[in-house]
């Protein structure tokens, strides 16, 4: 039973991101490099968050402080990664032009999507790996009166964060390119709100965290779609072509 729970939660959390990776990233070596680089920058954000948590001794027990600092550092390193890609744009252009129909550097939406997916996959891996290790046994949550929904809620929360990081990456890059700081602020605010909502899980108020998180995820998906230049007319035209 614990093995089934392990594979079920793993597929819930990482099944859609893995499909996204296989369909949109894995065939292009430049995209793979950018995804891995973005994941490394998320790791740097985690490292600096740990340093801040370790240095500010009186606030180590205040969980919300650590959450907010972590979010600010993650978005700061997302900005640094954006600046790095801007500086390396000419070099990437020369490399990606060889044997490619559409170089990734000329498609800013693709660039931001891959960077956001890299952030999301690394974030999801660190948030769920230890939980999955416990899910495999020898016991399971709920035997001693705890909620049996812990693992599946953690899996769905991880999936939401991976998707959110992907959407935030698109919104973030496009907002900086167009200097739309109102949309830019949405990324930071929504990231803080979603991260703080996870604090309800300490009291096993899973519905109070999971439902608002997925509502924000759907809203963010719509904002990312608009930021990428999408519209209802484009959707209708695509549906007509497929039919």
From TrEMBL:
Subcellular localization, as worded in the UniProt entry: Membrane
GO cellular component, one term: membrane
One Gene Ontology term from the biological process aspect of the record: Notch signaling pathway
Top-level taxonomic group: Eukaryota
Major location (coarse): membrane
Entry's transmembrane regions: 6-25, 32-56, 62-81, 110-129, 149-173, 180-200, 206-225
Membrane-related topology note: Multi-pass membrane protein
InterPro entries: Aph-1
Alphabetic keyword roster: Membrane, Notch signaling pathway, Transmembrane, Transmembrane helix
Family (UniProt): Belongs to the APH-1 family.
Protein name per its UniProtKB record: Gamma-secretase subunit Aph-1-like protein
Organism whose genome encodes this protein: Leptotrombidium deliense
Taxon lineage: Eukaryota, Metazoa, Ecdysozoa, Arthropoda, Chelicerata
